[in-house]
Amino acid sequence: MKILNWVTFILVVIGGLNWGLVGLLDFNLVTAIFGTGTLTNIIYDLVGLSAIYMLIYGGKMMSNGQ
Questions:
Q1: Which residues of 30-51 are buried (b: 16+ CB within 10 A; e: fewer)?
Q2: Looking at the predicted structure, is the pLDDT value of residue 35 above 60?
Q3: Cβ burial, residue 18 (10 Å; 0-12/13-18/19+)
Q4: 64 phi, psi to nearest 5 deg
Q5: Which of 12, 27, 34, 65 is deepest in the core (most CB within 10 A)?
Q6: Residue 62 and residue 45: Cα distance in Å, rounded?
Q7: DSSP label at 65?
Q8: Domain tally for the chain?
Q9: Residues 9, 47 contacting (CB under 8 angstroms)
Q10: Residue range(s) defining the domain that contains residue 29
Q11: Which residues are CB-neighbours of 1 under 8 A, at least 6 positions away?
């Protein structure tokens, strides 16, 4: 379970940094690296699912010190 926590945390951070780049510089890093298409959509889906996971379990992870 710890690995899933770290993977979701990293994906949420990557998503946040990407949105920061879009807002500040109008530069989408994910699209720049992977182009447009199915793989990019899968990455966005994984980031979104990771955010939902963090909303549900993030508080529990922080309170348990995991």
A1: beeeeeeeeeeeebeeebeebb
A2: yes
A3: buried
A4: -90, -10
A5: 12
A6: 24
A7: T
A8: 1
A9: no
A10: 2-64
A11: 66
Task: Answer positive or negative: Cα dihedral of 28, 29, 33, 39.
Answer: negative
What Å distances lie between residue 57 and 2, 7, 21, 46, CA to CA?
12, 13, 27, 16
User: DSSP letters along 14-41, please?
Assistant: HHHHHHHHHHHHS--HHHHHH-SSHHHH
How do residues 38-66 score in pLDDT, each as one tens digit? Answer: 999 999 999 999 999 999 988 776 676 55
Q: Which amino acid is at 60?
A: K
